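Thread: Newbie trying to understand structure tokens

Hi all, I'm a second-year student working on a class project, and my supervisor (Dr. K.) asked me to get a predicted structure for one chain before our next meeting. I've only ever worked with sequences, so writing a 3D structure as a token string is new to me. If someone could post the tokens and maybe explain what I'm looking at, I'd be very grateful. Here's the chain:
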Amino acid sequence: MLVRWYLAYSLSYRDIEELAKERGLSVDHSTVNRWVIRYAPQLEEQFRKKYKHDVNGSWHMDETYLKIKGKDVYLYRAIDKIGNTVDFRHRQLVRSESKFLFHK
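---
Reply by user tm_fold:
Sure, no problem. This is what the structure looks like when written as tokens:
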């Protein structure tokens, strides 16, 4: 539950620690961090199995950049002809790339 909260919402490890304490759980923020590192890949795999679907013929790649937790990242999405997201990936922008984007 705590790992899912961290992944699903824009909360810090200390926020998760406080939410757990409100529910009677005694857990340290560093423990939540270790759990996220350990269990996030498994949760992502289950998510992809449940929500990933076959592509019906044509699709295209959508690329944009945005901020996640204060860091600039590229977001790549594969979109089918209906407009459904088939898959997505993100990667952190290299400092030289972000300068190029903001100084056009």
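A couple of things are worth pointing out once you decode it. The chain has a mean pLDDT of 80. The radius of gyration is 17 Å. Feel free to ask follow-ups in this thread.
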